[in-house]
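User: Modeling request: complex.
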Amino acid sequence: MNARNALLYVTAPVNALVEGLYRQDTTIADILARGDFGLGTFNDLDGEMVVMDSQVYQLRSDGNAYEVPDETRTPFACVTFFRPYSVEEIDQPLDYPGLLALFDRLLPSKNMLYALRLDGRFDYVRTRSVPRQDSYRPLVEVAREQPEFEFTAIEGSMVGFWTPNFMQSVAVPGYHLHFLTADKRHGGHLLECRPRHIRISLQHIARLELGLPLTLDYLTADLERDTAADLKEAEH
Amino acid sequence: MELHESHHGKVLVVAPQGRLDSTTAPVFEKQLMQRLASCSHLVLDFVALDFLSSAGLRVLLLAAKQIGKDEGRLILCQVSPPIREVLEISGILGLLEVVDTRDQALEAMR
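Assistant: Request completed. Predicted assembly structure:
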């Protein structure tokens, strides 16, 4: 798929999530119609979402992965049809700053959207999964209480995106990755990792489709505040 | 990765050999930019390039931008089908001038 045809579908501006709007009307069936790869969360902030190979996984705050019925709803998800054109094998241990520097070398331009997938063996992975919440509690407060999980000598996959900083009200800026173990039983939002031997697949995405939810909460929300600092603390 | 280069009047021909990936791209970038400091007409001959990843695309974009600033010209030649596919799928092919042979590239530079 040519970069000009590749499209990232974002179900709702991430700003709404940051302000505590944890219920929207987009279903899992809706997002699978627009992509086979991506990440997000679920209504009531009930865990982290991984979409990989057209399968959706819900990584709840107990650290376990669950199957997701098609009618389940999400307040925020980003998906695309993943057709990578660049694949590299990295057969050397890296620390997390080293991995981020490697990502930087892989991006031809930071002004573009990219889908990234990592598969392989990791010496260490640290994740978190958000606990189920009532709406209107700001994301940054929730994020301070989220349980974290550590994995050592683990095989798995990471799915996610690079989003330019100038799009920070639409999607999480920078590198945003969710982890799923190879046995598809555990994972979460990536906080840190040390890869040992991985394959990195990358796709340019030159188009964006943004959903604006037709919900009372969204239509009446005040989204004028600059949420950059909150988002940085909550997501990185 | 090795670089083979030759001068043809004002034109510099650089032929990278091997893989242009995240490991080799930083060195390639440094070497290319050093040469572009004194030459703005560049032919990149990909006859011996086995692999091009997104990291290599980044270097091509930087080189094209530098050459554009200097009002020079960049032409790629002998691009294999797999590498052409990477250029095409990434959307970058349309930004670059590509011809089939080195002779065609040098003729175009005249």
